[in-house]
Amino acid sequence: DVKVTQSSRYLVKRTGEKVFLECVQDMDHENMFWYRQDPGLGLRLIYFSYDVKMKEKGDIPEGYSVSREKKERFSLILESASTNQTSMYLCASHYRGGNNQPQHFGDGTRLSIL
Amino acid sequence: AQKITQTQPGMFVQEKEAVTLDCTYDTSDPSYGLFWYKQPSSGEMIFLIYQGSYDQQNATEGRYSLNFQKARKSANLVISASQLGDSAMYFCAMRGPLSTGNQFYFGTGTSLTVIP
Question: From B45, which residue of chain A is nearest by alpha-carbon distance?
Answer without folding.
Answer: A105
